[in-house]
Amino acid sequence: MAARREHFGGRSAAILALAGSAIGLGNIWRFPYMVGQTGGAAFIIIYLASCLLLSLPIFLAEAIIGHRTHAGTFGAMERLAPGMKWKWLGLLTVLSPLVILSYYSVVGGWSIGYLWQSLTAGFHLDEIGAVSSAFGRFVAEPWVPLLFHTLFLGGCAWIVSAGVKSGIERFNKITMPLLFLLIVMIMVYSLTLPGARAGVEYLLKPDFSKITPSAVAAAMGQSFFSLSLGVGTILTYASYIRRDENILVTGLGTVGFDLLFALIAGFAIMPAVFAAGIEPGAGPGLIFETLPYIFAKMGASAPWLSGLVAVLFFVTIVFAAFTSAISMYEVGVAYLVEQRGLSRHKATVLIFLGCWILGALCSLSFGPLSGTHIFGLTIFNFCDRLTSNFLMTFGGLLFVIFVGWKMDKTAVRDEFTCGGTARFNTAVFGAFWFLLRYLAPLAILIIFITNFLA
Ligand code: PHE
User: How many whole angstroms separate alpha carbon 378 and alpha carbon 372?
Assistant: First the structure.
């Protein structure tokens, strides 16, 4: 079985794939807003610290399991801890990314819809000078969002079914550099708008009084989501990294790219938001209401340029969402291929069907199913809350406990230090071990409790 497994071509391919998973909607619709709301540069410092001290060790814990076993989540657990107990973690981390994928695909579908609109009709202000009601109408109408959800998920299926190397690796290799190029272009444009300065100040002005315990928990939670932790995606991608590769370098590269992209996205979005004279917000509203409003407003004076920027922006969002979604998709496919003996093609189709149905329910929860509630939440919000607030943190906690307390320390050290050959890794192993065993579980518990109380 292991001999037939595919591998990423090399270090850059592995980092691009992992960065592709990490860089997604989380960087574009949540990070910039959180920075502005929670103390600007002060938040960035806290965020950086939580990336390095908390999320990187968790990332490495997942990567160590995948890299050690060269198996997907379930198989990895089976190999390292025979018996049923830990297999539940394997199973949980097969299911949770598929739940995320289902609603993520709905949002990915909206992005394709908005890309289509920016290519065709463009965005225009209505009689009351707003475009936001258009978003409400768009998502409530059952058929068109379903069509775009199908297109998005179908696109993912197409890439994933082509395989790890010719599908996932190739797609990320083309898309990731393009994403950086696009977001930098948008940033340059945005920074030259009159009134852009206020957006820069919003992001950079340090306000340490806003650094409360809940802001710290929010920073940790955001770095967790942004680095795709706790749901087996990092584990699965790491299982495709070659034996002799340095996991710490891969981890640092991924964290670095993810952070860089989030910051550039902030400087691409916030200056434009302030230049248009509106209040920034987070979530779907930022991308599908605020940005179209800005494009519509700019369109009045410079239609060509604003049309072009709108297209570039939605291309960026669609592709950022794709590279993340395929990483979730691959977790399920790896399970079905390795544990259930299905062909990659069949596995892809099966995941497509399952996620399409759940995604369709999420999509319809903005329209015909808006009255259906689970624990007081619509289906879409329930799936979102369940995964980002609970399943991700819970999975992360178990991974950390597994590597820090259950796995053989010699094996962990061996993985971390490339069999003792990497000198820097050997020097910092003690710090990693401490962060993994004590700080990470404690911090995840704090995030978990904060989410619970929220
Ligand atoms: N990290 C992705 C983002 O920022 C989301 C994601 C979560 C991807 C979990 C894979 C797994 O949008």
Answer: 6
CA of 323 to the centre of ligand 1 (A): 9
Q: Is the pTM of this model over 0.70?
A: yes
Atom from ligand 1 closest to the CA of residue 22? 1
Non-local CB neighbours of 276 within 8 Å, separated by 6+ positions: 293, 294, 297, 298
Residue whose CA is closest, atom 9 of ligand 1?
Answer: 228
In tens, the pLDDT along 79-122 reads: 998 877 888 898 999 999 999 999 999 999 999 999 999 999 88
Contact criterion met (CB below 8 Å) for 326 and 175:
no
Which CATH code is given to the segment(s) 2-453? 1.20.1740.10
Domain ranges of the chain: 2-453
Sign for the pseudo-dihedral over CA of 430, 439, 418, 77: positive
Q: Find the 426 Cα to ligand 1 centroid distance in Å.
A: 30
Number of residues written out for the chain:
454
Distance of alpha carbon 57 from the chain centroid: 18
Three-state DSSP at 442 gives helix
Q: Give how far Cα 58 sits from Cα of 299, 325, 433, 434, Å.
A: 45, 20, 11, 12
